[in-house]
Amino acid sequence: MPEVKTEFATLKISDGTNMQVFIAYPEGSAKLPGILVFQEAFGVNAHIRDVTERFAKQGFVAIAPELFHRTAPAGYEGSYSDFQSVMPHVMALKDASLEADLRATHEALVRHRAVDPQRIACVGFCMGGRVSFLADLILPLRAAISFYGGGIAKSERGPGLLERVAQIHAPILLFWGGLDKHIGPDQRDAVADALRSAHKTFASMEFADADHAFFCDARPAYNKQAAEQSWMLSLTFLKSNL
C-alpha cells in the first residue's frame, strides 16, 4: 500500500470567502481518480479526515472541504455529544453558497497534479449525504455516494432537492439505516421514486438493523457489519463507474 500524504489548503470561494480543505493522496506519478468527501454536521473532524485518508489508501486523491467556513473558524470540530452546538452552523447553510463551495472544491481537485480530471466522484455522510446529492446535480461527476442524507426529500425541514432530480449527472449509490428515525421510509422511498421516474441510474441500499450514522466508528450508532459492507460496496461502485 502506498504512503499517503496529507495537507491542508485554502480555497478562494466566488463570494469572497476562504475555505480550508483537507487533502489526502498516495505518493506516485500516475494519474488517479479524485473524490470529494463531505462532512457530517460535526466538521472535518478526525473521523472525516480518517475516511479521506482511507480513500487515498485505495488510490484516490481525496479532498474534504470545511463547509462551515462562513460561520466557524478553520479547523472547527463539533462534539458528537453536543448536537445543539453545531445546529447554528447547519442552519446557516444555503444551497447557493454550498454550490459555490462545491465548484471551488471540484476545481481544486481537477487542478491537482495527481488527478485524472475525467474520473471524479463524491461521497458524503449525514449532512454531507445531502451535499453529495447536490454535488451530483451541479458537477460533471462520474459517481456519487450518499450515506443517510437527510433533506434530500421534502420534509418539515425544507423543500429538499428532488424537484431538480432531472439534473443528476452520475450514477448514485444511497445508503440508509432501517432504524433511522431521522429519515423514515417515506423519505427513502421518495428519493428512489424520483430517481426512478427521472430514469436515473441509482442503487438504494437499506441496512435493516442499522441506525443513522452507522458508518462512523466514533459514534454510538456505529454498526461494524453495515460499515464494512457499505465500504466494500462503495469501492466496487466507484471502481465500476470510474
Radius of gyration: 16 Å
Going by CATH, what is the homologous superfamily? Answer: Alpha/Beta hydrolase fold, catalytic domain
Shape: globular
Count of discrete structural domains: 1
> In sequence order, what are the helices and strands, one letter per element?
EEEHEHHEHEEHEH
Task: Please name the CATH topology.
Answer: Rossmann fold
Which blocks of ≥5 consecutive residues have pLDDT under 50? none
Largest sheet: 8 strands, mixed
Per CATH, which architecture?
3-Layer(aba) Sandwich
Q: What would you call the quaternary organization?
A: single chain
Distance between the termini: 20 Å
Structural class: alpha/beta
Please give the CATH class: Alpha Beta
Number of strands: 8
Strand content: 15-25%
Counted by DSSP, the helix tally is 6
Name the features.
single chain, 242 residues, alpha/beta, Rossmann fold, eight-stranded mixed sheet, 6 helices
Structure in words:
An eight-stranded mixed sheet has the order 1-2-4-3-5-6-7-8, sandwiched between helices. The protein starts with a strand and ends with a helix. The protein is an alpha/beta fold and 242 residues long. It has helices at residues 46-57, 83-92, 95-111, 127-138, 185-197, 224-241, and strands spanning 4-12, 18-26, 32-38, 61-65, 115-125, 143-147, 172-177, 202-207. The protein is built from six helices and eight strands. Helix 3 crosses helix 4 (127-138). The protein has a single domain (4-241), classed as Alpha/Beta hydrolase fold, catalytic domain (Rossmann fold), CATH 3.40.50.
